[in-house]
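Dig into these lines:

——
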Amino acid sequence: MMHPVSERRPAITDRTKLAPMETLKKDPAFMADAAGTAPKTYRITFESGDSFDCREGEKVLAAMERARLRKIQVGCRGGGCGACRVQILQGDCDRLRMGKNHVDDAEAAAGFALSCRITPTSDMVLRNAVKTPVPRQKCA
């Protein structure tokens, strides 16, 4: 005998999916230390005076986008295009690998970096430093 509708298993009404824990662990906003405190934040300031907060472990470009500022040009977000090139005037950061065609060794020593490939370890002062793009040549 078939059960009436009211006796059937209740329908699942909340179909939202939670992000896997591995994804959340990569998000600095989610992470907290054993004491339950929020991660450190660093103040990122441009020469113009505009500034935003960047969480520990967060890439500078991502923090700027989260703050809804448009001070750095946004491209691929992975270091391949060089659109987010900046010069670090003050402060320290951890650097991920960057293509030498966007930031060579001499430029890196002078403080140049791609904002999508750096995470601050102190407050920082930045200058926008996008290279002038070379126009593509058409093949004959």
